[in-house]
Q: What sequence folds into this?
């Protein structure tokens, strides 16, 4: 009547396993554990470029701070093309075409100790000028402002004349050719006469042949501040005396055979007469210096100068900018300014221009005093003891914050009171990036450069701040600004330009997408922000 429970339990368990096939091989299938499959594919953010800690933000503008399209900027160092100026991607930038935006952003090659370069800036319809660019950056700016102001050849205080002749046989002139730069209703500012029988040569002394000769002269009014505005900088750069050379007459003289520039003559010389101040002392010692656009340097010539009433004359065997100079005692004081009022976050530009020359410098944000030239550097910059100039303080868009109206003494300290002519705002821009093929993967875009500009005005630039954001300073409230981001090699998927409309002080965030590579294995990455 009683059944053995252990036997029944054993039978039940055996039946279950038999049904499941775990103990049976009757179906002929061998057991194989699952093998490993392919690793999942993940999106990987591109590597961020190396951070920039210093750039030069340059613009080429006219006297009203309107941008000049298609200017050319050549950087020279030690009389030769500079090899230390590079763009933000590290490529050589010895020559830059500013295109429509009229500006550029460059930096120094990694490891460079360069503290100074010469920028030769030219544009159609404007007088070519050399600018001294100080890269010592004693103020430790992230962005150093360089605003190159060119003067139109039709500006008041200038006169130009161009004459073309076919009186040439091979490389030798067969008749005299003259050009006379005389303003309408005025007297001659510069004349040049090329005699017959002169052989025309290039800089290497090789004869140039052609069917026509074109002689051009740009003369300057000796009393006009325009003369100081157009003279290439560096006239006293190599001066070691206790006096400085002060220009009393200035002209740019050029000659072409066909389209080839003439640099030298053989067989005779070219005669030059320039307008000069009428108050020059009789018999005053005068000298001639010429500027070499190929090297960016001035050199004193040995030409004798003949002084007339309101004129100076000399003969030359080469062509370029010429300055007739007199000697004056150098300024023995720092050239500085005291500032009343508030210099805004983006800083301001200080300029001083007279018939003797020009100087410019930066007023940093919040500054109350500023030294532009130390007394021991006054000779190099040609500042003499009695130097006067009209002083202006302006922003990058041409807004005038101070104007002395008349010339004031600049040997020493000048006082300026700055007043904002417009309501300015500053905007914080935060950039972010994601992969287009996986928007959960972030791309580090913090090492980009940002440039922004109002229509018709020069560019401004920004690098990231301590928080990784970009500060767009000195925006005119209510105006529109075009912003362009250079991601410095990151593979952008889309447009890198956007517009700020009706500028205000509100912070702005802008996201961009990038084409990111893929990889197998691992867990991918986030790229960071």
A:
């Amino acid at each position: 009547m009683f059944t053995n429970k252990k036997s029944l339990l054993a039978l039940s368990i055996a039946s279950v396993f038999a049904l499941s096939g775990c103990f049976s091989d009757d179906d002929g299938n061998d057991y194989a554990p699952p093998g490993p499959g392919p690793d999942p594919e993940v999106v990987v953010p591109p590597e961020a470029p190396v951070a920039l800690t210093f750039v030069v933000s340059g613009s080429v503008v006219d006297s009203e701070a309107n941008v000049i399209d298609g200017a050319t900027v050549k950087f020279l160092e030690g009389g030769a093309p500079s090899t230390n100026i590079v763009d933000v991607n590290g490529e050589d930038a010895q020559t830059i075409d500013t295109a429509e935006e009229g500006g550029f952003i460059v930096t120094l090659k990694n490891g460079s100790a360069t503290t100074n370069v010469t920028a030769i800036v030219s544009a159609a319809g404007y007088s070519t000028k050399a600018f001294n660019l100080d890269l010592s950056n004693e103020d430790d700016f992230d962005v150093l402002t360089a605003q190159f102001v060119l003067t139109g050849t039709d500006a008041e205080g200038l006169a130009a004349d161009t004459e073309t002749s076919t009186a040439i046989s091979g490389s030798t002139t067969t008749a005299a050719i003259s050009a006379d730069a005389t303003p309408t209703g005025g007297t001659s500012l510069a004349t040049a006469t090329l005699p017959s029988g002169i052989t025309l040569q290039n800089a290497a002394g090789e004869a140039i042949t052609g069917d026509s000769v074109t002689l051009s002269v740009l003369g300057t009014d000796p009393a006009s501040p325009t003369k100081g505005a157009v003279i290439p900088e560096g006239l006293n750069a190599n001066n070691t005396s206790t006096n400085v050379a002060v220009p009393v007459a200035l002209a740019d003289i050029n000659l072409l055979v066909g389209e080839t520039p003439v640099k030298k003559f053989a067989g005779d010389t070219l005669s030059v007469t320039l307008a000069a101040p009428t108050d020059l002392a009789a018999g005053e010692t005068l000298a001639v210096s010429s500027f070499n656009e190929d090297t960016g340097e001035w050199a004193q010539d040995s030409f004798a100068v003949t002084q007339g009433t309101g004129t100076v004359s000399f003969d030359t065997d080469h062509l370029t900018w010429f300055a007739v100079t007199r000697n004056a005692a150098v300024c023995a004081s720092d050239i500085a300014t005291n500032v009343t009022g508030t210099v805004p976050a983006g800083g301001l530009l200080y300029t001083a221009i007279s018939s003797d020359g020009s100087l410019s410098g930066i007023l940093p944000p919040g500054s109350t005093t500023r030294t532009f030239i130390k007394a021991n550097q006054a000779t190099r910059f040609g500042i003499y003891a009695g130097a006067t100039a009209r002083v202006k303080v302006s922003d990058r868009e041409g807004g005038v914050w101070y104007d002395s109206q008349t010339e004031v003494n600049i040997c020493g300290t000048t006082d300026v009171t700055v007043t904002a002519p417009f309501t300015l705002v500053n905007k914080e821009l935060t950039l972010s990036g994601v992969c287009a093929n996986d928007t959960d993967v972030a791309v580090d875009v913090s090492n980009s450069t940002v440039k922004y500009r109002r229509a018709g005005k020069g560019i401004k630039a920004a690098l990231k701040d301590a928080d990784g954001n970009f500060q767009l300073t000195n925006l005119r409230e209510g105006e529109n600004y075009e912003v362009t981001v250079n991601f410095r090699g990151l593979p952008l998927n889309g447009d890198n330009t956007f517009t700020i409309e009706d500028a205000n002080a509100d912070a702005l965030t802008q996201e961009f997408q990038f084409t990111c590579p893929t990889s197998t294995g691992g867990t991918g990455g986030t790229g960071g922000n």
In short: The first helix runs from residue 5 to 20.
